Amino acid sequence: MQRAEQRSRPRMVATLFWPYAGVVSAIGVLACGLLIAAHPAVPAGDPLFWLLAGLVLAGELLPIDVPRRDGFDRVTVSTAFAFAILLLFGLLPAVAAYAAASAVADVVARLNPFKVLFNAAQYALALFAAAAAMALAGDAAPVATIADGLGAVLAGGAAFLVVNHVLAGAAAALLQDEPPLRYLAADFGFQALTAGFVLALAPLVVAAAEASMALVPLCLVPAVAIYTGAREATRHAHQASHDALTGLPNRLLLHERLGRALAAAALDHHQVVLMIVDLDEFKEVNDTLGHAHGDRLLEGVAGRLRAALGETDLIARLGGDEFAVLPAGHVGAEDGQRLAGRLVAALEQPFEVDGVVLEVRASVGVACFPEHGRDADELLRRADVALYCAKAAQHPVALYSAAQDHHTVDRLMLAGQLRRGIDAGEITLEYQPKFPLGGGRPTGVEALARWTHPALGRIGPDGFIALAEQSGHINRLTEEVLRMAIAQSAGWRRDGLELRMSVNLSPRSLLDPHLPQLIRDLLGAHGVHPQGLQLEITESRAVPTGRVAAAVLEELRTMGVGLAIDDFGTGFSSLVQLQRLPVDEIKIDRSFVANMEQSTGDAGIVRSTIDLARNLGLLVTAEGVESDEVRRQLADMGCELAQGYGLCRPLPADRCFQAVLECAPALRAAV
Question: Which of the listed CATH numbers 1.10.10, 1.10.1760, 1.20.120, 3.30.70 matches domain 4-241?
Answer without folding.
Answer: 1.10.1760
